[in-house]
Write a structure and sequence with these properties.
It is a single chain. The radius of gyration is 17 Å and the shape is globular. The chain has a three-stranded mixed beta sheet with strand order 1-2-3, covered by helices on one side. It has a three-stranded antiparallel beta sheet with strand order 4-6-5, with no helix packed on it. The protein is built from two helices and six strands. The longest helix has 14 residues. It folds into two domains: 57 residues, no CATH class; 38 residues, no CATH class. It is an alpha+beta fold and 109 residues long.
Amino acid sequence: MTLSIRAIDSSFAAEVAGIDLRLPLSAADVAAIEAGMDRHAVLVFHGQPVSDDQQMAFTRNFGGIEHAAGGNITRSDCTRAAPWASAVSARPSARCSVRCASAWCAPIR
């Protein structure tokens, strides 16, 4: 497959095709994705059923994982979702049991 990046209309986003994020990336693919991020700000990768470990491996191609500290937590019994969390939505799951401010979080135990 050949990686391609196509702008979505006149927006600041682009779609990426021709790559399987479950597999290791070549140096050329990493460079193309970085250039796409620089040009478009948002890249959309459709149909990529990646596991958490695969997403972390993909992410590490672009630098170390940043662990956020502090933030806008308004209740003392709440903490942000783990830095590795890939999807946070407005519906609770087994990992999320308390709603704090505008994002789901887990109670501190």
